[in-house]
Amino acid sequence: MDNSSGVGVLDKAAMVLDALEAGPTTLAQLVSATGLSRPTVHRLAQALVHHRLLGKDIHGRFILGSRLVELASAAGEDRLISAAGPLLIQLRDQTGESAQVFRRQGDSRVCVASAERPVGLRDTIPVGTQLSMKAGSAAQVLLAWEDHQRLLDGLDGARFTPTILSGVRRRGWAQSLGEREPGVSSVSAPVRGPNGRVIAAVSISGPIERLTRQPGKLYADDVVQTATQLSRALQQRSDERDSE
């Protein structure tokens, strides 16, 4: 499908923004992802930074900018969050555990939607909570499908290994036992945007004594099903928008 609008500079700027959907990106990685020349990418990126459509993280990598969050809020709709709400409630009710959706933001992951277990011992993660990308099943999922250099950067200091991430890619889901917090287990699966990139992770989390030391064996199917439903919802909404 030809995505060209006929306005070259806007098409190229859109390519740069699309390349950043998966997370922090160096200039060299932007050049590789877009196929544009280095001077062109540099010029576009700097202009987008000026307008706050892009920003930079503490390592100097490009990230999506704060202006995009403001515009999404002004539009009154975030497709991921609005689609996630009822699916997380369904997942919570199926598993009896708290359910969340995480997005990567720089070197952290942020809870953007949540359905808490109403009673009993639970792992409470309110919307807006920032957690490490170095531990936990959601961090594994958000890192596992990154390109080689991002994978290496993400593994530096992580509580999980390349072998674990290889297993995540093979199975299509991740589990953790006390990685992020002692006594807490979790299971996560990837949410993919319309272009196929992993843009978020669906998770459930709770105490090890309830989820056991093999939480994936109990709940991976439910979590993967929810992540797949959310991915399909995003694709459907994208198709509807494109047909308007």
Automatic annotation (TrEMBL):
Pfam families, per the entry: HTH_IclR, IclR_C
Domain of life: Bacteria
Sorted UniProt keywords: DNA-binding, Transcription, Transcription regulation
Gene (name only): ndgR
HTH iclR-type domain location: 7-66
Name of this chain's protein: IclR family transcriptional regulator NdgR
Residue ranges of every copy of the IclR-ED domain listed in the record: 67-236
The species this protein was found in: Zhihengliuella alba
SMART domains to which the protein is assigned, alphabetical: HTH_ICLR
